[in-house]
Structure formats: structure tokens, C-alpha cells
Amino acid sequence: MVTYGGMSKMPLQVPTGPFIFNDIRLTGFWMSRWYEDPGNLEERKRMYAELCAWMKAGELRPPQFQKRRLEDHTEALEAAAVDFSKKQLFIS
Question: Transmembrane region positions (predicted)?
Fold first, then answer.
């Protein structure tokens, strides 16, 4: 299982059965610390290459977004608070 960001501040809920019967384990991971380690440079390059390949193949897509002018920031913030399915992208 991979979780990134933890923005909900809610604990993970996972089923007990797989942990018991399949010897599954969860381990924490802090991306910022991994980025700061120069020893991970080659692995990071491979990761970016794999992500780019997934995007080219259509297997990984960016989130939907709504383009907004900076002057419309009030409406963008209101929309962001209601509709979590789209990101707000500001353009000037």
C-alpha cells in the first residue's frame, strides 16, 4: 500500500485478514527525506522515467483541473472548498 500526503489527517483503515494470513506489513515513508539523500539520485531518475512512460502510455493521468484567472481567486477558493474532484489552476 502506498499513501502520499496524508492530507485528510485520518488514520488508515485496512482489513485485518490479509495481515494475519498473508504476512503483510505496512512501513512509513517520508518522501522529503528520501529526496534529500544524494544516494537516491539514480533511483529518482528511474522513478521519473517510469512515471513519464506511464503518462505516455495513458496509464497515469493528471487530475482534472479548472483554469482560473488570478483575479478570480475568490471563486476558485469557493469551488475548491466544495468540489474536491478538480484542482484549481491559476493563470495570469
Answer: none
